[in-house]
Amino acid sequence: MRYIAAVLASILCGCGGAEPEAAAAPDAGRDRIRNFWTLYRQASQLRLEEKHAEAARAYREALTLNATHEDSLYYLAASLERTGDYREAVAALETLLDVNPASSRAAAQLGYLLSTPAPGAVIDFERAERLFDRLKEINKEQAGPFLQLGHLRLNQGRLAEAAEDFRIASRFGAPEGHFWLGYSLYLQGRGDEAAEPLRKVLAAWEHERKLANAGVRSEGDVRPSAKPVTALERSGVKARYLLAWMDASPAPAGPFRALPGNVRPKGPAAAADFDAGGLPDLLVAGPGPVTLYHNLGGGRFADVTVAAGLGAARNMSDAVWADVDRDSRPDLYLTGDRNMLFRNLGGGRFADITESSGLAGQRPTSRALFVPVPGRAPDLVEVGPASIRLYRNTGARWVDHTARAGLDAAGAVVDISVCDVNADGHADLFALRWRKPASLYLNRGDGTYVDASSGAGLAAIHGDYTSSVFFDYDGDRRPDLFIAAWAAFQDVASQANHAAPKPRLFRNAGHGTFSEVTASGLDRAYGSMQALAADFDADGWTDVLLINGSADGERLERSVILRNTNGAGFEEWALLPPFAGAANSTSAAFADFTGDGRPDIYLAPNPLVARPGRPAALWLIADR
Question: If we measure between CA atoms, which residue out of 499, 463, 498, 469 comes closest to residue 483?
Fold first, then answer.
């Protein structure tokens, strides 16, 4: 009651008008209070119904009537996090901390947002660590701050420190502490020690289930079907999954074998025969200097980075090969905070033409592709945390054509695909956004695009989707659309959450329209970071490779090839063997590196989970 009275007082303060209006002030104040609580209840109901965008709008409207209401600020941030609006969520929590500097929940949630990698997220590990350290001092007898610090350090690769944080949390009886202690010990190669805390989780989970099933239940004991999964249940599912992983014998190679190559994998890669040697070569990006590998044949590669003139390129997030000047030689485009364009001069040499071509400057870019244009050199499309940029290739320079092209930059774009979906001779664009509606941009042929998502039947693509790829799955010579989804670790481990995001397939019905099809084999949840399409089993039908993992260090999951069953659906055909004692990949590239007519696969590892001290034997995997 005191809390409600304080809220009413804060709303009423300052609401009075001039003396002639004094009599009306009480009624105006009561209306303001009534309207505020109506909006707040509406927002809370929308949030419970997982209509997070509508909830955020209602919370914002409520805050216009009471800008310091703590619950509204906190749940506004929660709703914005669910819609992928991370900067706005951070701002709401900062406002809450201005209102109440002692708010532990605001500090904890802000630290979480600042330390959890996600498309478009605002990462500030140092500030997050300060927040968690402060919470640790305030709540010295609680597991929460130690769990949060452990996750932060795990996602920085500070495994020993993370393990100690999780060990402290486990002493407070937190089941998550036991699981993450075991997980972080396993990542350090300490499997024997890791098993003990994992088995503690399973023992506690089994004990709880026995208690829940004991005796005769009364009406009040019945658990609603929609009741959230407990922390112990989540930890139990993951502990069982990890113990099974640890106890399993080395994974069979299946249809693959490790190539004897000397490629040092560290990040995303792209393949092309840059020197016309007859075999595809490989450019590996990622932290530190990029590496260009010349394919010597027989699965062997030579590092030719410096000789090729690429020694200055470093800390790149992706690589794209394309003949941008129509001289029949593949040029190289590297993306990162500052993108770089290298012209292929022939003879194994490249020249940095970023400045002279008009592409210099800082603009964070996660993906890029080149758009074929009839009769001239291709255009360039870049996507990033909150933007789509189109550069027109004039031959001499690249000119920013985004505004005239009509491309909408709302939301973090996680993937961009190019395909002539309506067979009009012009390449169209499909932009996949994180927790925002996707967009199909039809190319008008005059340098402009129109968003045709609704008319094309693609307006419902909205959620935790990470990758898109066009290919003809049913053999009707029309490009269909496959969407890869990213599900939570526990949902992949248990497969019990029917609401977990799963892959989706949209059949091209012609004339630029699509319909979602319920294809068999797409009913499992995966933590997919990327999808690639190729005929991996050489049966004439295009299959899908799902690159499974995460941007953080908090999961293990093998990548999988979904075999196309003659256009009727898909089935799991091959699980790619784990590498370096773990499996968490962020991207992949494929090409016929061996020249046997079948696609080989390069996996980009997540360095946060690669076991130290063990050689990486399975970076290149050849179909056999």
Answer: 469
Q: What is the pLDDT of residues 328-348, one digit of tens each?
A: 999 999 999 899 999 999 999
Q: What predicted TM-score, i.e. pTM, was given to this entire model?
A: 0.90
3-state secondary structure 570-618: EEEEEECCCECCECCEEEEEEECCCCCCCCEEEEEECCCCCCCCCCCCC
Asked if residue 451 has pLDDT above 50, the reply is: yes
- CA angle, residues 414, 47, 102, in degrees to nearest 5: 90
Q: How many residues does the chain have?
A: 624
CA-to-CA separations, 320 to 93, 333, 366, 528, in angstroms, rounded: 38, 5, 12, 21
> Is a pLDDT exceeding 80 seen at residue 2?
no
Q: What CA–CA distance (Å, rounded) separates 339 from 113?
A: 27
Of 3, 622, 619, 621, the C-alpha closest to 267 is 619
- Residues 367-414: tens digit of each pLDDT: 999 999 999 999 999 998 878 999 999 988 999 999 999 987 677 899
Q: Which residues contact 624 (CB under 8 A, 6 or more apart)?
A: 255, 256, 257
Task: Output phi, psi for 244, to 5 deg.
Answer: -65, -40
Query: Which residue's entry shows tokens 């996949």?
Result: 432
